UniProtKB/TrEMBL annotation:
<dbReference type="InterPro" id="IPR012338">
    <property type="entry name" value="Beta-lactam/transpept-like"/>
</dbReference>
<dbReference type="InterPro" id="IPR050789">
    <property type="entry name" value="Diverse_Enzym_Activities"/>
</dbReference>
<dbReference type="Pfam" id="PF00144">
    <property type="entry name" value="Beta-lactamase"/>
</dbReference>
<protein>
    <submittedName>
        <fullName>Beta-lactamase</fullName>
    </submittedName>
</protein>
<feature type="domain" description="Beta-lactamase-related">
    <location>
        <begin position="20"/>
        <end position="331"/>
    </location>
</feature>
<dbReference type="GO" id="GO:0016787">
    <property type="term" value="F:hydrolase activity"/>
</dbReference>
<dbReference type="InterPro" id="IPR001466">
    <property type="entry name" value="Beta-lactam-related"/>
</dbReference>
<keyword id="KW-0378">Hydrolase</keyword>
Length: 354
């Protein structure tokens, strides 16, 4: 791929080694294109490179394009709202989901279990991708936990799907309407949206066996069926709105016209919130450790090739948006590549702090 398509906004190069690695991995074919940003205190360096689309024709990557955020939806939308409800005292972390979503049959799985991925919920649903929206929702409401409930982390989409259904019960609106009104609008994320129509403004994802390239449709098959009710995926976000969201975290919940989250809430996320304090996961977020002193750093990924890495203590962040499933999904190779980028950034920022 041709780095001539590289565009950037900042003269000063903030994390040159990590940036070089991101571009190198693109050249090696791990993803056709990328939009990324480094944040250090009040400084932002953003850049795009490569192609948003290569099939059926090439389209250069630009900063105004919307990415299928995949599981970043979990932290941007679903987790954000659950945290605000916890602050308001409308829900309690260690109460069963059944208390707030009576249609969910099990009475032992708590909100903490779902947020920390410790529910051991058995997610296999027969003929899942052939079910209607109504049938799929009914199947999720019947899921049960396994023997490791509360004991170990097993990442799943089911937790945020169920939390999304809980939010619908509380707000009496669809998840998409709630996320738009309660998250995107207050944060001023005016470019981001759910259920977009296929257009040149969205970055395409996978090419299906039929030859069709998914564009403006959610890549996750469950979220495609759940549509306006999906709490696990479905957000389409651009680089600038990603920066806005991450800066809210770096500012410990403060936004231009007040607060989105309380400082105490942000602080609580920098701790292991699993029931037995043995999973090193927070509420909604995964945690990484600083290579120098081991302090907690917020981390979350999206299947389509996205991630946020937010170090609140040192006021640094890396935002990474790629189209790595386009046109073909090579997940195993990408995961090695992603982990290398994350590790490089953590090491480079430690060196630059000295």
């Amino acid at each position: 791929m041709d780095c001539k398509n590289l565009t950037e906004k900042q003269e000063k190069k903030m994390y040159p080694q990590t940036k070089q690695l991101i571009l190198k991995k693109m050249e090696e074919g791990f993803y056709p294109g990328v939009a990324a940003a480094f944040i250090k205190e009040n400084q932002v360096e953003s850049f795009t490179a490569g192609f948003a689309q290569v099939v059926p024709e090439k389209q250069p990557m630009t900063e105004d394009l919307l990415f299928d955020a995949a599981s970043l939806t979990k932290v941007v939308a679903t987790t954000s709202l659950v945290l605000r409800l916890l602050e308001d005292g409308k829900i309690e972390l260690d109460q069963p989901l059944h208390k707030y979503l009576s249609e969910f049959e099990n009475q032992t799985i708590t909100l903490r279990h779902l947020l920390t991925h410790t529910s051991d919920i058995k997610t296999w649903i027969p003929n899942r991708d052939e079910l209607s929206q109504e049938e799929l929702i009914a199947a999720y409401l019947k899921l049960e936990p396994g023997e490791q409930l509360g004991k170990e982390v097993k990442y799943t989409d089911a937790g945020t799907i169920l939390l999304g259904l809980m939010l619908e019960k509380i707000y009496q609106e669809t998840a998409v309407e709630i996320f738009q009104e309660q998250v995107l609008e207050p944060l001023g994320m005016m470019n981001s949206l759910f259920l977009p129509f296929p257009s040149k403004k969205t970055v395409p994802t996978e090419q299906l066996p039929s030859g069709e390239v998914l564009r403006g449709q959610t890549h996750d098959p469950k979220a495609r069926v759940l549509a306006e009710h999906a709490g696990n995926a479905g957000l389409f976000i651009d680089l600038n709105d990603s920066i806005t969201f991450v800066q809210m975290y770096l500012n410990k919940g403060k936004i231009s016209n007040g607060r989105f989250l309380e400082e105490e809430t942000i602080d609580s996320l920098l701790q292991d919130q699993t029931p037995e304090k043995n999973g090193y996961r927070s509420l909604g977020w995964d945690l990484k450790k600083d290579v120098e002193d081991g302090h907690a750093i917020l981390f979350h990924t999206g299947y389509t090739g996205t991630f946020f890495l937010i170090d609140i203590k040192t006021q640094e962040a890396l935002i990474f948006l790629s189209n790595r499933v386009h046109p073909v999904d090579h997940r195993a190779e990408y995961l090695i590549c992603r982990d290398e980028i994350v590790e490089n950034f953590l090491k480079e920022k430690a060196v630059l702090q000295k």
